[in-house]
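Supplementary notes for students who missed Thursday's class. We covered one full example, reproduced here. Read the sequence, then the structure, then the short commentary at the end.
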Amino acid sequence: MERQIYSNLYERLLLSNDKASVLAVARNETVPTDPRQIIKDPMALEFLGLRRESAYYEKDLEQAIITYLQDFLLELGNGFSFVARQKRLHLDGDEFFADLVFYNRLLQCFVVIEIKTHKLTHQDLGQLQMYVNYFDRVEKLPHENPTIGILLCADKNDAVVKFSLPENQKQIFASQYQLYLPTEKMLLDEMQKEIESFEQKVEEKRAVYLAQNKS
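Structure (token representation):
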């Protein structure tokens, strides 16, 4: 509980556009109805014991997650259960492998996680979209909800994510992983960014109001 308070839950509340909804889900007061209520960005993976200054292959990070699967499930949040590792997908003679597959009983859907130890690219998003489409069309049962895809990456450009995916889509998400817990300074810096962003929005609205009511 202490770890969640000082790391992911706090950061997630800072980054969320619907802080009240996110907090209610975290407290188990409500059942999530939208993937954005449970998907964390960033994800803190300090429990893997990997040194942040070292370089890792994707298979190394995947193996570490499997080794510490219970901790990873706790990091993912409520309702997740493990389904498969390196899930083989057959597409007309070609084979592809989804890194990690989970199921969320609260959202009633598959969750496919693809690991990238580099900065996210639009090709990575296309790959994950294909896996999500496969699960929706082959694995998903009629009563289940659409599959969610999470691209777990070392770094990302939010603009690339935004323009690589359709508007208002709710199935593909990019989460940056951290191999360490944030320091108090990092949390304070994030809070300061939120305050500055809020003040800027207030000033912009004030300028619009004054312009509209200018005599």
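Commentary. Helices lie at 2-6, 8-15, 19-26, 58-67, 69-76, 122-139, 158-164, 184-212. The CA atoms of residues 42 and 176 lie 5 Å apart. If anything here is unclear, bring it to office hours.
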